[in-house]
Write a structure and sequence with these properties.
Oligomer: homodimer
Order of helices and strands of chain A: HHHEEHHHEEHEEEHE
Largest sheet of chain A: 6 strands, antiparallel
Number of strands of chain A: 8
Strand content of chain A: 15-25%
Number of helices of chain A: 8
Radius of gyration of chain A: 19 Å
Largest interface: A-B, 19 and 19 residues
Distance between the termini of chain A: 55 Å
Helix content of chain A: 40-55%
Chain lengths: 227, 227
DNA sequence: CCCTGAAGTTAGGTTTGCCTAATTTTGAGT
DNA sequence: ACTCAAAATTAGGCAAACCTAACTTCAGGG
């Protein structure tokens, strides 16, 4: 079996991630947006992936793609690379959590299994990356985190940040300044109506921050108790 | 200026290395061999490099290529990446010196300047890689090492290994087993006629090893004294 | 000085992955 | 049912890099 190209790995990773985020088949437009290519390019690539001998995906024309087992395996491998590299860059080389995504996007396609093994061992086989995203085990298995969007947390609830999208460095910088990193506990003190901001007080802070929808959609928490 | 592709970087690095090894213009066949591609591909690429707006190389049809300043700068940057990565993999991740070349071949094209800076700082800005090859400074300058092939060392001379070609893992394993790594002192005890083996005794060893031409051509030493 | 084999180049073709523009399909609203 | 805009696909192209096969140039020996 010929090695997968970087482009193919990017598509598989994106399909996996969007499939998890939405729980449904992934449509062309979403992929095009995520990958920064035209919809036509996505259409073409999806046909290739579906018709490849490994049958990486199944594609119902006009109705989205889903990963087949082989595609899912490959996607998880790339995601494992990506997240291990992110963790490594932060822990071993002192990168900020907002700086690692871009670098990992390139490195994920290039590192060997030996490299993967060595950084995993160095890090003590971590189970999540600096943004709280779980790191798939070698060759498979990634349990679905049981967390919810901060968007969906009711007033008065205490919660603990579980993970944050790693895709927007500016968002990460901002959240870092507020102290809203994984494991941080917080209290939802208020919600404005009509998708208005959600007010949040991190444990140990006097400040209360008003977070807009763009942010709360990208921050996931585990509920700790009713208030 | 559009980013250089990995292929272009590979060509520039190879041209630089061969130009240094031979001291002359680099011919198509040597490049094809080094890069593992056909001569036709080399011809095509050389025209592209020569005609690119940056004028990376000058190419006298049928008479070889040489790097122009822009090409040399780019080549040194890639070589810096390659050698820093090799040093990092050995020092930080416990790779063997025979394992790093292949990994570095991929990583060199992909790491950012930030990554380069961080590993250089981590390593304390080393001036040579695990095989003894000098690491170019940021943005240029690489002094020509004043060493000679082990092939050219006379009987009775003491010398110290300065560097070893990193391209053949099996050779590196073998040399490692003999203890012939950079900084190792040795004595040339005998030379057989007609390009026969050269006999070498590493300091601190009882053993004398007979090394064939294939090996002695790839091992460089600095002469320490006449015997 | 000419001939020839080796070295190098050109010609023409393939694959990969992207693009824009044109077309088709879908599905939501009347 | 029908319309029609949004979503998706197809058609046709382009740029990188590679290949093989055919041809050209070079340089050394007769």
């Amino acid at each position: 079996m010929p090695r997968l190209t970087a482009a193919v790995e990017d598509y598989l990773r994106a399909i996996y991630e969007i499939e998890v985020e939405t729980g449904a088949a992934v449509n062309t437009a979403a992929l095009a947006e995520r990958l920064g290519v035209s919809q036509a390019s996505v259409s073409g690539m999806l046909r290739k992936l579906a018709e490849a001998p490994e049958r990486l995906v199944r594609h119902a024309r006009y109705h989205g793609v889903r990963l087949n087992p082989a595609g899912k395996r490959a996607a998880l491998e790339v995601i494992r690379h990506h997240r291990l590299v992110e963790a490594y860059l932060v822990t071993a080389l002192g990168y900020g959590w907002d700086e690692v995504h871009h670098e990992a996007d390139h490195l994920e396609h290039v590192i060997s299994e030996a490299f993967e093994d060595r950084i995993a061992a160095f890090l003590g086989h971590p189970d999540s990356d600096p943004h709280g995203e779980p790191i798939p085990a070698r060759g498979g298995r990634l349990e679905r985190p049981d967390d919810v969007r901060l968007t969906d947390v009711a007033v008065g609830q205490r919660a603990r940040v579980s993970r944050v999208s790693d895709r927007d460095p500016e968002l990460l910088q901002y959240l870092g300044r507020l102290g809203l990193k994984p494991h941080q506990r917080l209290l939802v003190t208020a919600r404005s109506p009509f998708d208005g901001p959600i007010h949040v007080q991190p444990d140990g802070s006097q400040e209360i921050y008003a977070l807009g929808r763009r942010i709360t959609d990208d921050v996931f928490v585990r509920i700790e108790s009713q208030g």
